[in-house]
Amino acid sequence: MGDSKLYTRVKASDILTELNNYEKKPKSSVYRKTILKKIIINMSVGDNEVIMLISQVTKILSDLGPTDSEIKQLCYFYLTNYWRHKQEETLHALPFIVNDYETNKKTSDNDTCLAIRTMASIHIANYLNSLVPILEESLQREISGKIRKTAAYAVAEIFNVNEKRDPESNRRLLMLLNDMLAEEDDASVVSAALSALREITDKSDTLKLSIDSNHAVKLANSLTGCGEWSQVSILSSLLSFISQDLKTAAHLIDTVLPYLQSENSSIVLNALKVVVYLSHYVDNVLDVFPVLPQSISGAVANLLLKPAEIQFLAMRNVILLLLDKPALMDLDIRMFFCQYDDLLYIKDTKLEIIFLLACQENMDMVLAELQEYALEIDVQMVRKSIRAIGNLAVKIDATSDKCVSVLADLISNSIPYVVEEVAIVARDILRKYPGKFDHLTHLLVDRVDLITEPESKTSIIWILGEYSSSISDSIYLLKKYAANMLEEPTETQLALLTAIIKAHVCQPYNKELQGLVENTLKDVTQNTNHPDLRERAYFYWRLLSAKLPNAIDIIKPRLLKLNTETDALSPDVCEELNLCIGTLASIYLRPVSQVFRHVKPDRLVDSPALVHQDLKSPQVRAKVRRSTIRSRSSTTTSQQLGNPSINRSRSSSFKLDEIVKKLSLKK
Amino acid sequence: MSSAIYILDEGLNLLIHREYKEELNNDFIIEKFKELFIESLPVSQPILYSDGVTYVCLRCDDVYMMSPVYEDVNVMRLMTFLNKFSHVLRSYFIEYHFLDRCSKRIDSDLIKDNYILIYELFDETLDWGLPQLTEFSILKEYVKPIEQKVVMTEKEKDNRKSDAAASLDKQIEADINSSISRASTAMISWRPKGIFYNKNEFFMDFDEHLKFKYNFNAKKVIVNHISGQILCRSFLSGMPALKLELNEQIEQKNDNSELLETRSIFTNVNYHQCVELSAIHNSSLSFVPPDGEFKLLFYQILQTSVLKPLILVKPLYRIFYKEGRFILRIKAEILTSFKRKYSMTDIAIKFPLLVPLEPFKIDFDQPLRYKTKLGKVTHNLDSHSVTWHIAKLEGLSKGDMMCDFQLVVKPKLFEEYEEDMLHNKQSKNDLIYFDLPSEASNLKGKSNNMALSSAMENVLDSRAENKDILVTVAFKLSAMLYSGLKVNYLQIKEPQIDFHSFSWVKYKTICEGDDYSFVVSDDQIQVDLTEQQIAESGNIQTSPNDNTKEPNFNERDNDNNHGDQHNDEIAPAVQSSTVYSYGDRVIDFEEYKIEGEGANDQASGYPSK
After folding, report:
1. CA–CA gap between residue B574 and residue B580 (Å, rounded)
2. Which residues of chain B does A270 touch, with a Cβ-Cβ cutoff of 8 Å?
3. DSSP 3-state of A581
4. How close B77 comes to chain A (CA, Å)?
5. Beta carbons within 8 Å of A305's beta carbon, 6+ residues apart
6. DSSP state at residue A568
7. Residue B181 has what pLDDT?
8. What are the 10-residue block averages of pLDDT along chain A, 667 residues in total?
9. Which residue from B589, B567, B607 is spatially nearest to B314, judged by alpha carbons?
10. What is the rounded average pLDDT of the residues B172-198?
11. Model-wide pTM > 0.90
12. B501 has pLDDT over 50
């Protein structure tokens, strides 16, 4: 029987009359069950009118609950949802639940858990009064694991409410949980106790969860013996362990490392988090674990095979690692090349990673790939890839020639949106390399008619103003733009005004420009309503009429050097984010406190083993590693064999470069 | 830790929800989410943010699972959970649960039908928003769909009638297996204790899917990836420990010893949770399998430069003029390069139908003519292509195919169409070029039937802009894997019960859809016509016996040395065994290698040379 025919919103009063009608009839239990289902459905779809039926529901619970566990479940569910609004009525159900617990505690784990769970979700004093002894009983060793697990979570759930009511009992419960940590053998119960304690300490200002090294090792070893979600909790609780010496940290990394290959992506990321965290406590971590980059990259590759949503999360974390500790990864950039059926946000994120991974050595390959994206049909993708090429030109000086020639290539097709996007990136490129790429300006100016979008218009106008003396028909173009100035958006108007004045101060004796300046200033001051624009026009006007000798320094100052390090995060933020792998902060790439208020930011805690090492640049890493290997090779020959993977990956990337070179030659 | 889970239908209306934290204003959350979701269309991000609330959302077939988050949580855990939960739902509804209507997707009706079951699942899988258990094989012991039991008993009755003895065995098995106490907190959470089978069997299916792309423009293999998996079905009693050894290195272990020899062919490997990750040695792994079906591992191999492509296709498109008719001829040669003892089945090679010359269109009024010794050739209208079907092909063999279409010029098409309209007739050309597209655009106006209309647009524009012309091959190859992977041995040991077990291993390599493709270059499209012929093509159609054009045609041919071998018309293209000549170019198989990988062929065990 499908329940979908019940799936409609019904008025609570109708249900009530229906219920009253059936109460007297024989076999009323079947009807009442159906009606209960209707109530639950109304609750599911968010129709809160059914609140008023609470006394009916408790009646059904006490009548039918003992025999029909499905009814019991549904009623419990109803109560946990609505107890806040009808505390009086909810109290009527308490004896039943306690009774339910008492009768089932020896026989059925599931029912016992259900009862505990329900009581713990209802924060009324009477409920708590009966729950606390139950919990104390359930946390004892001889009870089955499943119940102890649920009880542990229940403690966390009621802890804050109970604190005000009866701090004494809270201390007892906390002690019980603590004992569980120390003495328990069942790893999944330990993990439940850990998450419970973690939740309690997160919310409280005075308590703090700390794990000593013996315990941390024990926890790590217990990972093999428990289910996947327990592994996740244990892994994330390992972050509360502050390593006092290198050896323990190294040992833990070694234990956790295999979990990077788990099928469960959450385990993978949490293991990664633990590894990254502990690597702060191991000096020269890459010498101790030469496999580390390889393993992490393998894990990343695996995550990229998951559904899009998970890929997205994984890649955000890759970006985080790339920003701070690229040396920990040995990624093959081709892994992030877009597939045609990737969703847009995946392509987006991949482009970001490609941008971060691009360096002088792989530039040919990257550019070939980006150029291919720029020829796609999807306009958004085209724009983004062009922007990426432009940013690469600004980022890496040595290959800017190649980037610009690709851009020039793209413009030559005269597709409007391509030209528009190139115009936007051209501004930064021209600023970064003054005088180097004048041909790009000319290509753009030739196609200036194709540009209609405000942002790129603003950009091309800026170029016209800045380089007016080297562009032959700049005056003509500025004039053309000035003709319909008043229809443009403010941003463009401002840019245009500035550009015209700039052009004027560069060529002060140009008659045509003088006329243009006069007209524009007059036009703007008289006809525009926008205060910023008008003010700026007046400002220029006065500046020009004052005939200051250094007006040019004010109007067209020497450009500041473009800072390419803007994408780097501050070290503080990086340190904090490193401890947030897999959490929301890693998605936004912002410190926790900016996204969520009332959250304690995590910090690396100082300990004798804490080291600050530079894992920033992959190149440095390679050099350092090679030299250390050389120095050690005299003592142990086997040590040198530790690195064939590096050599191999290098050689293969060389080969690829060759292939790409040949490709371009053939073309 | 999630504060609530909502399941929404396709229109983002609330179907079912479960709250774990303080009371939430559901209507407000759903409304806000809807707003954000629509804002970020066409493809919404999985993480949306507004006013301090983060909405984590995962699409599962036709429904969405969404969870609002108020604090900095382990979002990967949440997302992984949602993903696993969707798998659980799928297992319940589609693989395991038989409803009357066989839906292959999870949709809102399924959720509505089984909402009680889903509440129970929420209860079991989450404790206060913390994931506990998402392993279907265990969950199904706690949460049982009601329908399932009914069907089971009916099945058992049937069994009893047909084969009493067998069903008795089954009965015993079922009884023993159903009375097992199953605990989620045990060491091995994926396998309950005390499973019993009369006959102990273990099946392993090795499947490999290839992604292959050869570009005739660049004359090299662009993509050649393998993604493979080992699917197992286990019917073993007790707690068996299995040990599997493959002929290849699985792990790259950078321990300090004997490293240079160990080189894995796998780019990355993903294990089922039953595999003991800490006990993977060289090429062997040990595991305690779950009961029933599971995926032991899946892997990707990206470095395939030492492997030869399994099958090669060389297409040639040619337009020429003969006896008053313009003809498009598609010629293809294929060659297989695996060992002779294996054979490929269900091969379908698909050639897109394109006419590289503007005024010409394919004349569908004339039947398709083809000639081949292998299989048959059909025209498919929906994808505007020709498919060459071959039932079976042996290793190290070759074959060829040739098929002709007559061409007609565009103005002529219009003329005929009008004439047919006048006579109230409908020829095949009219149908394909005029009536179907207009029908499709009608449909497009009403409902967004994108697939159909885009196919129709392709019919009209024979060559979509900027798109590669792809010749694709689909095939199945059983009994061997492209990577050459093999099982060295499989050991099944149960410490307590001493049983005799049977293990079965199957290998299969599969290619479907666009996975195996060749990008056609301009070299392979020949137009053997003169300007004049093209210009006058309209007239030629009407007066086919115009002899003056004929010498023109030959003259051009002699100039270019192109069409000589194609001139003797239907003679099958017999050519030397390894070297193929192509116009004035010579192709042999050396070119299929990736450059820069010259001396790398020594790997043994591959089905090469």
Report:
1. 10
2. 74, 76-77
3. coil
4. 5
5. B227, B270, B298, B300
6. P
7. 45
8. 62 73 68 79 76 78 76 82 78 81 77 83 81 81 78 83 78 82 77 83 74 81 79 84 81 84 85 86 79 83 84 87 81 80 84 86 85 81 88 84 86 83 86 80 81 85 82 80 80 85 80 82 81 85 80 74 62 74 77 61 65 57 37 32 31 34 38
9. B589
10. 61
11. no
12. yes
Contact B327, B320 (CB under 8 A): yes
> Strand, coil or helix: what is B229?
strand
Residue type, B336: T
pLDDT of residue A660: 36
Q: Is B363 helix (H, G, I), strand (E, B) or coil?
A: coil
Instruction: Return the pLDDT at B152.
Output: 44
Predicted local confidence at residue B581, as pLDDT: 35
Alpha-carbon distance of A157 to A200, in angstroms, equals: 8
CA distance B372 to chain A (A): 35
pLDDT at B167: 55
The pLDDT score that the predictor gives to residue B79 is 87
The Cα B166–Cα B159 span in angstroms is: 8
Between CA A253 and CA B65 the distance in angstroms is 35
Question: Which pLDDT score is estimated for B444?
Answer: 57
When comparing pLDDT for B447 and B508, which is higher?
Answer: B508
Give the integer Cα–Cα distance in Å for A503 and A519.
14
- Rounded distance between C-alpha atoms, residue A92 and residue A83, angstroms: 11
Residue type, A583: T
Q: SS3 of B604, please? A: coil
Q: Ramachandran region of residue A335, left (φ > 0), alpha (ψ -120 to 50) or beta?
A: alpha
Residue bearing tokens 């069942």: A186
For B265-282, how does the pLDDT look when each residue is reduced to its tens digit (9 = 90+)? 777 777 887 887 777 777
- Per DSSP, A241 falls in state B
Give me the residue from A144, A263, A310 closest to B271, CB to CB.
Answer: A263
Radius of gyration of chain A (CA): 34
Q: How many angstroms separate the CA atoms of A125 and A165, rounded?
A: 8
Question: What is the average per-residue pLDDT within B390-395?
Answer: 86
Look at B133 and A3 and tell me if their CB atoms are within 8 Å.
no
d(CA A228, CA B133): 8
Buried b (16+ CB within 10 A) or exposed e, A616-638: eebeebeeebeeebeeeeeeeee
Contact B487, B536 (CB under 8 A): no
DSSP code string of B453-474: HHHHHHHHSSS-TTPPPEEEEE
What single-letter amino acid sits at B103?
Answer: S
Region label for A327, one of left (φ > 0), alpha (ψ between -120 and 50) or beta (otherwise): alpha
CA distance A485 to chain B (A): 32
Of A81, A189, A236, the CB nearest to B74: A236
Say if strands B398-409 and B360-362 run parallel, antiparallel, or are unpaired.
antiparallel
Task: Name the minimum distance, in Å, from the CA of B47 to any CA of chain A.
Answer: 8
| Any A CB within 8 A of B1 CB | yes
Distance, CA of A594 to chain centre:
14
Those of residues 443-482 in B touching chain A at CB distance below 8 A are: 466
pLDDT at B380: 82
- Rounded Cα distance, A375 and A409, in Å: 11
Candidates A44, A74, A113, A141: best to mutate against B (most CBs of B within 10 A) is A44
Put simply, the answer to whether A583 touches B75 (Cβ < 8 Å) is yes
Per-residue DSSP letter, B289 = P
% of chain B surpassing 90 pLDDT? 1
Q: Pick B562 or A453 by higher pLDDT.
A: A453
**ipTM for the assembly:** 0.77
Report the distance separating Cα B15 and Cα B111, nearest Å. 7
- Please report where in the chains the tokens 């965290």 appear, as a residue: A277
Indicate the Cα dihedral angle A86, A88, A94, A95, nearest 10°.
-140
